[in-house]
Design goal:
Blueprint lengths: L3 E2 L4 E2 L8 E2 L3 E9 L3 E8 L5 E8 H6 L3 H13 L8 E6 L3 E7 L6 H5 L6 H20 L2 E2 L8 E3 L5 E3 L6 E2 L21 H4 L6 H18 L9 H10 L11
Parallel strand pairs: 1-7
Antiparallel strand pairs: 2-3, 3-4, 4-5, 5-6, 6-8, 7-8, 9-12, 10-11
Helix pairs in contact: 4-6
């Protein structure tokens, strides 16, 4: 995988901002961070358009043995261009950093909306339809998200859903000879029982399970499987122990 490479990562800007990346993007506020990356709001200095830039530290990636992982994530993001998936515009690199220039989605996480209470059925239906449209598009192209949850679903200015964070995603060529995936991954409350069984799983079905949990959360305002003890929660998931609230329509 080739990156656009230049000798310096960032020029300091005398205006007091974070800096000017490659003479093209002005970094703004920090939106979030993880072990290997930080995400900033930024501006294209020519067009003035807002973007989100994911800044990855090459040294940390090398030490963590994640080069192949990052290349796969880039390949996946370039493969899944869809109205309900956050778009990757370009990838740039320097000697020390890798930059993912991505669509900036202003409305925040769907999680923030549902944390205030359950949604109306018509609103939940709209979000679920958009989620399924995006997930089906990915599956048709041999891409499996494997970490679908409201925190990874963003809302744009029009209130439309955008799937984000393909960091745990996999592609068809990673399937084992038994036709299954075997990597244990995902977020505990949204993980499918076959993942917990550790005997291999169909990633299409795992994504659909997570979509079902998301729909429940949108309609109920709480998780179907929940327990402070994570092993107790896993038992509930594995056994399918949950109840639908009385306000669910039939």
């Amino acid at each position: 995988m080739a990156f656009t490479s230049v000798p310096t990562a960032m020029k300091k800007d005398s205006s007091g901002g974070q800096g000017l990346i490659l003479g093209r993007y002005e970094l703004g506020k920090l939106l979030g961070h993880g072990a290997f990356a930080k995400v900033y709001q930024a501006y294209n200095v020519k067009s003035g358009d807002s973007v989100a830039i994911k800044v990855l530290d090459k040294e940390k990636i090398l030490k963590g043995g994640l080069i192949a992982h990052i290349k796969r994530e880039i390949s996946i993001l370039r493969r899944v261009r869809h109205p309900n998936i956050v778009q990757l515009f370009e990838v740039m690199a320097t000697k020390t950093k890798i930059y993912f220039v991505m669509e900036y989605v202003r409305g925040g996480e769907l999680f923030n909306k549902v944390s205030k209470g359950r949604l109306k059925e018509s609103v939940a239906r709209k979000y679920f339809q958009q989620l399924i449209s995006a997930v089906n598009f990915c599956h048709a192209r041999g891409v499996y998200h494997r970490d679908l949850k409201p925190e990874n679903l963003l809302l744009d200015d029009n209130g439309d859903l955008k799937v984000s964070d393909f960091g745990l995603s996999a592609v068809s060529d990673q399937i084992r000879q038994d036709g299954l995936f075997h990597t244990f991954c995902g977020t505990p409350a949204y993980v499918a029982p076959e993942v917990l069984g550790r005997k291999g799983y169909d990633a299409v079905k795992v994504d659909i399970w997570s979509c079902g949990v998301i729909l429940f959360v949108l309609m109920a305002g709480y998780l179907p499987f929940n327990d402070q003890n994570i092993m107790a929660m896993y038992k509930k998931i594995y056994r399918g122990e949950f109840r639908c609230p009385r306000w669910f329509s039939s």
